[in-house]
Amino acid sequence: MNLQQPNANEATQTSNRSRSVSPVSGICTRCIDGCHGNCETFKATFRGREVIYPGPFGTLTAGGDKNYPIDYSHLNIAGYALGAKGLPEGQIGHSDNTLFPMVNTEIQYGVKTKVKMKLPIFTGALGSTEIARKNWEHFAVGAAIAGITIVCGENVCGIDPGLELDAQGKVKKAPNMAQRVEQYRRYHEGYGDMIVQMNVEDTRLGVAEYVVDQLGVECVELKWGQGAKCIGGEIQVDSLERALELQKRGYLVTPDPSNPANQAAFRDGALKHFERHSRLGFVDQDGFMKEVERIRKLGAKRVTLKTGAYPMRELAMAIKWASDAKLDLLTIDGAPGGTGMSPWRMMEEWGVPTFYLQSMTYDLCQKLAARGKFVPDIAIAGGFSSEDHVFKVLAMGAPFTKAVCMGRALMIPGMVGKNIGLWLQQGPDALPKTVSQFGTTVEEIFVSYEDLVAKYGKDTVAKLPLGAVGLYTYADKMKVGLQQLMAGSRNFKVSTISRDDVMALTPEAAKVSGITYIMDAYREEADKIINS
Question: pTM of the full predicted structure?
């Protein structure tokens, strides 16, 4: 099995010349002196550190493509010919009251002040990357009308050009964050929430104090990492003045924009941009518990934790400390992940893949529950995009896993909808055939458009960003697809989905996950029937 392809990838805009490639190095079997390129080794010879990152920055989302030995395709969903779970109280299942549109996909998470969502999905962290900034309104309004949670990622205040700090160096005014909160709330209808993440820089800048006190944000998320990388968040900066400004605010900016040689390289045009990095976080239990308590005292109604694709030690710390602190949600993000500007080889080769990480999570949560301890609501992230993924994740993690965090899959509809709007502004001829085959007006193109008109009115819908309409339409597809899978497995509400509703296709997948191998699933019941 070919698990990786080093030295060339579309993400880094590189490719091998030869059809034959050394499997370990990724270098062409015939590397010719005089080759015109364009493998990563060739490109890195003159562009250096640029080749670490996917590109072009600001216009793409990148996700790792390493083919792991076991993934969620190694599970299949069980469907049944009898029974029905999760029907309204007192209702007995029969063919007229178990139609798939009757399936209830709503869920809730949290401890004291719970959050309801219309679907068991929510967005990944959309923070300071350019792709998140320029598309935020589309994502936020789409999440609000779809009734799901949106996560505002790290460093949003810290990179805001309009940021104002008080005499103590704390956030006094952050226009972009204020705008992000307003854009989500404008259409919020009681389902979902806006979570604001905190990393080291955000804590130093007093972001929690600002968003809770000044903006009325109810949920703050502490962040230990993500599935795409084991270092802090990065963005690219294409202005020397901006790079110096961020360096002055305390960020690590590379190459050093205050270095005259780097300034000269930037003026020459060789250095195209600078990189802004976040500091590594360090955790200890006492400090973690104090930080949770501090945020609660600020007035936050909910505190959550996001952790990355770390080995089992850090995973156990996240689960146990979240239990001790009675956190409202723990989101666990597996490799390979990726939404913004993660180093490409790190995205490919770092961390515990999601299937393995969720298997570890279930095992640790079981042990905690067996001791009578509080188990926090769990969300799993790490490369999901479809309703079957959602079902499998919920089943594999039942009863602890309440939702699936989706990164790129919920960003793409926002970007596609936005671009359809831009193409329509240029005229019908600007629409690609993949879109124009369905029509040349928004009413013809978006299958959910009239549903929104019926709900909000024509004038209101006309003002919606089309990326929001796209996200809503995608969420509707996810809902219907999930309803069909749930009905087929005789689950009429999310909470009845269990580990018995999925089967491992290989002994290896069964061993890792603890899910029953397909040849053994329901074998005892089958033997009783045959032998009766």
Answer: 0.94
d(CA 474, CA 445): 13
Q: Which residues, other chains included, contact 445 with Cβ-Cβ below 8 Å and sequence gap of 6+?
A: 420, 435, 438, 439
Q: Which helix (H) or strand (E) holds 528?
A: helix 523-531
Nearest to 464 by CA among 481, 482, 446, 439: 446
Nearest alpha-carbon partner for 402 in 196, 18, 107 = 107
Amino acid letter, 182: E
Residue labelled with tokens 């790079």? 243
pLDDT in tens, the chain (532 residues): 456 679 999 889 999 999 899 988 999 999 999 999 999 999 999 999 999 988 887 787 888 888 899 999 999 999 999 999 999 887 887 888 899 999 999 999 999 999 999 999 999 999 888 888 999 999 999 999 999 999 999 999 999 999 999 999 999 999 999 999 999 999 999 999 999 999 999 999 999 999 999 999 999 999 998 888 888 888 899 999 999 999 999 899 999 999 999 999 999 999 999 999 988 888 999 999 999 999 999 999 999 999 999 999 999 999 999 999 999 999 999 998 777 678 888 888 999 999 999 999 999 999 999 999 999 999 999 999 999 999 999 999 999 999 999 999 999 999 999 999 999 999 999 999 999 999 999 999 999 999 999 999 999 999 999 999 999 999 999 999 999 999 999 999 999 999 999 999 999 999 999 999 999 999 999 999 999 9
The residue among 419, 515, 400 whose CA lies nearest residue 467 is 419
Listed by start position, the domains of the chain span 10-52, 114-412, 417-488, 502-531
Written out in words, the top-level CATH class of the domain with range 114-412 is: alpha beta
